[in-house]
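During the reporting period, our protein records have gained a structure token line. A sample record is set out beneath this paragraph:
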Amino acid sequence: MKQKHSFNFMIGLLIGGLVGLLFWYWQKSTSAEDGALALLDKLAATERRVRELKTEMTGRGAVPEVLRSIPLPDQPTGYPSFLEKSRATIQVDDLTRVKGIGDVFNGRLRAAGVQTIEQLKALSAEKLADILQVRLGRAENILAEAQTVNQ
């Protein structure tokens, strides 16, 4: 009888260990995704700042050789050219005011045609998750944060 109890204990221990390992791996993979998105937001902000400084220094007529050697894209990251041209005629909200939306997600939303916070609020969680390429839970959190933003 004692032999059967130790066998059941070992099976339970093995199953518990596997469940713990799966949970740890899931947590690790989702936190890595969040970290990568934060780094992309910082990169986009840095590119924008370098572009602003380069434009400012070009206006003064003195651009250091270091800045001339930095290759910059013709348009800001994440914005299609048709949005840049029509930006003055369309009422555009700053979607980065919503907690959870940085420059990368802002670019993805703009590319999908979402220009205002009201348009963002009208999206379903599934559609937002598809646009932002994130988990459904994260999209639901972003929509909840969008509801708290005042116009």
In short: The chain is about 70% helix and 0% strand.
